[in-house]
Amino acid sequence: MKQYLDAVRETLEKGTRKPNRTGVDTISTFNINYEIDLSRGFPLLTTKEISWKNIVIENLWFLSGSTDIGLLKKHNCKFWDPWADKDGKVPSAYGNFWRHFPLPDNQSNDQIKYLIEQLRDNPMSRRMVVSAWAPGNAQTSKLPPCHALWVVNAQVDKDGAPFLCLHLTQRSCDVALGVPYNIAGYAFLLELLSRFSGIRAGIFAHTLIDAHIYTAKADGTMAEYDHIPGLKQQLQRKPRALPSLEIDASIQTLDDITALLSQDTDQIMARFQLRNYNPHPAIQFKVAV
Questions:
Q1: Element (H, E) at 166
Q2: Which residues, other chains included, contact 39 with Cβ-Cβ below 8 Å and sequence gap of 6+?
Q3: pLDDT (tens digit, 9 = 90+) per residue, 2-14?
Q4: Is the dihedral of CA 243, 249, 252, 258 positive or negative?
Q5: Which residues are catalytic?
Q6: Quick one: 11 exposed, middle or buried, by C-beta within 10 A (0-12, 13-18, 19+)?
Q7: How far is it, in rounded angstroms, from Cα 147 to Cα 107?
C-alpha cells in the first residue's frame, strides 16, 4: 500500500527526535495526509501480516459503545489490556463517546445513530461528524483518544452516482503499530456504513497530525522499543495485491452488528470474509505504554 509506505518514508526523512509521555523517544513529524480508494481493494497492509480478526472485533466493540474489555478478551484481543482499570473498563474507549457522548444534565448523544439516520434521510449532509474527544474525559484520561474525530461525506461521480467517503483526523499516530490498524479499521467502518446506507464505499482520507516512530534513545538504550529497523525492512518488501472484503448479506443494519456480539469468534468472522490476503510475514514491534 503505497500511501502507508510513503508516510513511513516521510516520517523517517522529515522527522526529528522528540520526547513524549511514554519515556521512549520518537522520530516525529507534523501533518501527513493521504487518500485511499476502496474500489481498488481493501487497505490491509501487505508488507507485514496484520490480524484481520483483531480489526473486526475491535471495531464491533467500538460500535457497541461498551467500555468493558470483556468482549475483547472473549475473542483473545489483548491490545486494550494495558489501559483497562481494575474493573476491566476503559473509560476513554472510542465507542463510549461515539454512542454516549456526554451532554449537560447527565444526558448523552448517540452519534452513530444520528449518522446512520442522516445517511438514510439526508445523505448529502455536511454535518455527519463523530467525535471521540470529550474534553472532560480527554484532559484527564490515561490514554485520551488518538483518532479523535471522523467525518462521513457523500460525493457524486461524473455520472451522477453517489459514493461515500470518510475522513479521519488523528492527533497521535504510531506509524509502525497503530496506523496500519487505523487505516483498516476505518475502512471497515466505511464499508459497514456503505452497507447500511446502500451508497457504495469510495475514499478513505487520513490526516496524521503527530506522525511518529518509536526509536532507541540517542545513547542506544531502550533499543527494544526501536521500530525503525522493522519499518526499513518493510520498505524493502514489494507490496502485494490488496485483498477484497465480503460482508455477509445478513448484515444490513446497526442492530445486526449488536446481535453478533454474543456469537463466538468463528461465527463473527464468517460474516466478514477477507479474500486473497497474501501478506509478507509479520514483524513484531514492542508497544510503548
A1: strand 162-174
A2: 200, 201, 202
A3: 999 999 999 999 9
A4: negative
A5: 146
A6: buried
A7: 24
